[in-house]
């Protein structure tokens, strides 16, 4: 028996009732077509069991699970297969270098899930997004990650640095459910480049290749090829620092955000996709247009909320360059994001909303069939006896 989907450790976005509908697809290789499906909680969640009979060796059925981390086992009379799935909240990350790194060394909760692929080997290739696996962030290493180019830059750095491992631990604990991150950030990029690539317009650049629609292409591919498998709660954005020398207009900054947000919603088909935008710039007193433009974008775009005020972080939270966040700065950003995301109640994008019933039919057990076979005549005789007794009494009364 093979389970084709979901993938192992695949996350699913919970809905506002804390549940997610999961499609189980697979192939029966040996044995009969009577399947038993058992979802056993690993961390949180509620046990679930279902029996179905497939009409062919290719099976498809749906189950609905409450938030939690589960092992799902599917078996028949000869074989079985199992996977782990997570029902919780899923966030996509976009922005400049502040979004880089996982900080996986600081993540201890197995319920914090990430994509195994870094996507950087070829971020324009849809196959890397379609085929990526999922892993617990605490297990992130050169042995579990895929599609990376450089161990030092994309593994060691991502283990040591990043906001998201710290944030994941806080959210998993306080929301009591799994949390997943899909990183579509692009270090060194500007809001201007994100807008131009959204419009598919060329611009000069060394490592940001506009001919391949960088830098927004990674974000759009995540929305097109991963989110339809998982669902999504919101997009977490950190931008602004790299645009200080490109404009002094708040309206231009707001326009950058508007085009990015509109393009993401249009090309993904998720019209209510939520964005949480963190205003970020150093020496903000002299660069107020970055903050004003970010706040204007938040005001102008529906379903867009203000994230942490990273521009207010002092030098004690930054590296020697007085720009990038140090470990304390990343910890503070994680805590500040968590204040907004713990128990947040926006309507997320979830999967299988229109599913009415499974393609496979339910099958009663042999014991249930025997019981019904014996019980049905008894009930019929009892009802007939009652009817005859009542009828006889009425006839006697009329005489």
What does this structure look like?
The protein has 399 residues and is an alpha/beta fold. It folds into two domains: 2-86, Immunoglobulins (Immunoglobulin-like, Sandwich), CATH 2.60.40.10; 89-341, Rossmann fold, CATH 3.40.50. It is 33% helix and 24% strand. It contains ten helices and 15 strands. It has helices at 126-131, 151-160, 164-175, 191-198, 216-225, 227-230, 250-268, 288-300, 327-341, 366-398; strands spanning 2-5, 10-13, 19-27, 34-44, 48-53, 58-66, 68-75, 80-95, 112-115, 134-136, 179-183, 234-239, 275-279, 304-306, 361-362. Strands 2, 4, 5, 7, 8, 9, 10, 11, 12, 13, 14 and 15 form a twelve-stranded mixed β-sheet that branches. A hairpin with a 4-residue loop joins strand 7 and strand 8 (80-95). Helix 4 (191-198) crosses helix 7. The longest helix is centred in the C-terminal third of the chain and has 33 residues, at 366-398. The chain is elongated, with a radius of gyration of 27 Å. Mean pLDDT is 92; it is low at 357-364.
Keywords summarizing the entry:
twelve-stranded mixed beta sheet, alpha/beta, 10 helices, Immunoglobulin-like, three-stranded antiparallel beta sheet, 2 domains, single chain, 399 residues, Rossmann fold
């Amino acid at each position: 028996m093979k389970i084709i989907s979901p993938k192992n450790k695949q996350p699913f976005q919970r809905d506002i009732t804390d549940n997610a509908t999961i499609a189980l697809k697979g192939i029966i290789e040996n044995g009969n077509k009577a399947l038993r499906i058992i979802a056993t909680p690993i961390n949180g969640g509620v046990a679930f069991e279902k029996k179905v009979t497939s009409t062919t060796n290719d099976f498809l059925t749906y189950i609905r699970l409450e938030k939690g981390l589960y092992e799902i086992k599917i078996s028949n009379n000869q074989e079985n297969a199992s996977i782990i799935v997570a029902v919780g909240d899923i966030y996509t990350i976009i922005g400049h270098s502040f979004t880089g790194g996982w900080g996986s060394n600081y993540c201890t909760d197995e319920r914090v899930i990430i994509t195994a692929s870094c996507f950087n080997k070829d971020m324009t290739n849809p196959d890397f997004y379609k085929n990526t696996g999922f892993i617990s962030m605490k297990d992130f290493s050169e042995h579990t990650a895929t599609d990376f180019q450089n161990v030092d830059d994309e593994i060691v750095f991502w283990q040591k640095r990043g906001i998201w491992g710290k944030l994941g631990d806080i959210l998993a604990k306080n929301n009591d459910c799994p949390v997943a991150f899909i990183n579509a950030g692009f270090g060194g990029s500007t809001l201007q480049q994100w807008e131009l690539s959204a419009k598919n317009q060329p611009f000069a650049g060394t490592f940001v290749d506009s001919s391949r629609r960088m830098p927004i292409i990674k974000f759009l591919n995540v929305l097109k090829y991963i989110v339809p498998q998982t669902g999504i709660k919101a997009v977490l954005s950190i931008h602004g620092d790299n645009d200080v020398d490109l404009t002094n207009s708040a309206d231009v900054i707001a326009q950058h955000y508007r085009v990015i947000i509109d393009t993401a919603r249009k090309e993904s088909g998720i019209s209510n996709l939520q964005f949480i935008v963190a205003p970020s710039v150093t020496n903000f007193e002299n660069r107020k247009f970055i903050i004003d433009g970010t706040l204007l974008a938040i005001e102008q775009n529906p379903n867009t909320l203000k994230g942490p005020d990273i521009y207010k972080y002092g030098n004690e939270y930054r590296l020697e360059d007085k720009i990038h966040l140090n470990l304390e700065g990343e910890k503070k950003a994680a805590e500040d994001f968590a204040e907004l995301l713990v128990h947040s109640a926006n309507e997320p994008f979830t999967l299988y909303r229109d599913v009415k019933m499974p393609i496979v039919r339910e099958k009663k057990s042999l014991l249930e069939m025997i019981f019904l076979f014996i019980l049905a005549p008894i009930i019929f005789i009892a009802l007939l006896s009652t009817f005859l007794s009542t009828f006889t009494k009425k006839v006697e009364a009329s005489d």
